[in-house]
Amino acid sequence: xxxxxxxxxxxxxxxxxxxxxxxxxxxxxxxxxxxxxxxxxxxxxxxxxxxxxxxxxxxxxxxxxxxxxxxxxxxxxxxxxxxxxxxxxxxxxxxxxxxxxxxxxxxxxxxxxxxxxxxxxxxxxxxxxxxxxxxxxx
Length: 138
Fold this sequence. Notes:
It is built from six helices and no strands. It is mainly α.
């Protein structure tokens, strides 16, 4: 079944600026800041986990609505990071450097997971035609 890209793109939350800021921009800033400050207040790992869960949940919804390729990877990735934040809080209550470092590095790798799959596949949406042959890929 071959679906046109513009049909899939209509349900893409990333096309709406307010949704992109609300579901990914602000939670990414909150997660980063709370992980950085977790050495002083380990309960901030809980806020980071909540922010990462919002991002993962938004990716799940977006993958279901428009079949955006990278959302199939980032949804479980962000949800695993949220679980990692909970584990860091439960097993590392003093906010040791190791927990904060791996969470920050993993969060920092997210842009690669967002950009790379769509470039390698040559398409934004599963089921959409690939790039080339007169079709533009953005």
